[in-house]
Amino acid sequence: MAILVFRAKLIQFREEWPFNTSKIIPVRTKYIILGAGPSGLSFAHTLLAHGEESFVILEKENEPGGLCRSTEVDGAPLDIGGGHFLDVRNKEACEFLFRFMPRDEWNLHTRVAKIKLRGCKVDHPLEANLWQLPMEAQVDYLESIAQAGCVRNDSMPEFFEDWCRWKFGERIAEEYMLPYNRKLWRIPINEIGTYWLHKLPNVSFRETLLSCLQKKMYGTLPAHGEFLYPKLHGYGEVWKRMGKALGGKLILGTPLTHIDFETNTVNGTYRAETIVTSIPWPAIVHAGSIPADIQAAIAGLVNIPIDVDYHSENIDGTSHWIYEPDETVSHHRILARSNFTTGSRGHWTETNARVSSDTSGFRHRNEYAYPVNSVGKPSAVTMIHRWANSVGLIPIGRWGNWEHINSDIAVTMGMQAGLHLMGKP
């Protein structure tokens, strides 16, 4: 009899379920964190490190790591979000991550990044390594730099296409900068702003000329001049360990379906004092009631989807990655996996998904990969953040700020946000 009663109650519950969501009592917690990428995980562990345990972190995928996840392909790890490495210059982020994956589990690499140009492979950045090219090409590009607007102290232009010519001169812009960026972004180049480029030093004709005469690089190494990569794993390993260390506080396979900003309730299941988001803004538009002007601002944000395709052939040489500006080739970058992943072979390419051709091999599509620094982005993000602040929503990381940042910066952002919300210095 008891079994029959239980079955009857179960059938009644199933029949009533679509109409009973209001009867669910949400789990109360201090923080709900949306997204278990580098910034979300770092925020969560910063809370834990300072004694705060009242939180949950919701992740739509079945493992943590966001764009930094790895999976096994052809017997070795492959980073499905593209090339991500740990910059040794960010000591704060490195020390934080070493708590989960100690320093002795990482290899230190001196970056070898190449650009394909005029049938040659030259080290990146181009202006510091012209001396590696044939003499005629060196003269052509030196002449281009000599005529660049930044060398002549002209004012920095507002639009990206003009900036490329101002920065490097006509020939380098036409042969390298413009074709590479056209194929990468696949939007009109002058829809990209220049406000984010002020931190870059001007090209020095004197240093470039000395570099060619003395046949050595001048200037400072760019980001990831030296980087760390796991000895025995893909880059996704450290984020998996961070997720595992959170135990039941990390809820995987849980996409955002609904958010009530009046009660800070997510998916009808969790209710918090504060919601922290590291997920793309369009995912929030589809889940909650948002003012029309904020929806329009979010709709104006530009994102580039990227396909990561595996190829079993090894790349000749010692390059870690190679930039490909040739517009007749669909991919814009090659990552030589065999040169930085222990015991692996092959390489992967990164291609704007809007122009990817069909493949029979392994492919992972990242619908959200590169946020674009469009001309209208600053005003849109300011408007979105102002609204988010008014409803108690805290944005962090790449997608919360819509910035094309490296993973170590995402870690730092997550740490800083956690400390700030807890009132810690």
Describe what you observe in this structure.
- The termini are far apart.
- It contains 13 helices and 19 strands.
- It has helices at residues 2-16, 38-49, 91-98, 135-146, 160-168, 170-185, 205-214, 236-245, 281-285, 292-299, 377-390, 397-401, 407-421; strands at 27-34, 55-58, 70-73, 76-79, 86-87, 106-110, 113-117, 120-123, 226-230, 250-251, 259-260, 265-266, 270-277, 303-311, 321-323, 333-335, 347-352, 363-371, 393-395.
- Strands 1, 2, 10, 11, 12, 13 and 19 form a seven-stranded mixed beta sheet that branches.
- With 425 residues, the protein is α/β, with parallel strands linked by helices.
- Residues 4-21 have low confidence and may be disordered.
Short description:
This protein is α/β, with parallel strands linked by helices. The protein is built from 13 helices and 19 strands.
The end-to-end distance, rounded to whole angstroms, is 63 Å
Report the C-alpha radius of gyration, rounded.
Answer: 24 Å
Q: In this structure, how is the largest beta sheet organized?
A: 7 strands, mixed
- The secondary structure category is alpha/beta
Strand content: 15-25%
Q: Please mark out the parts with pLDDT under 50 across 5 or more consecutive residues, or reply none.
A: 4-21
Helix amount: 25-40%
The average pLDDT value, as a whole number, equals 92
Total strand count, please? Answer: 19
Counted by DSSP, the helix tally is 13
Shape: globular
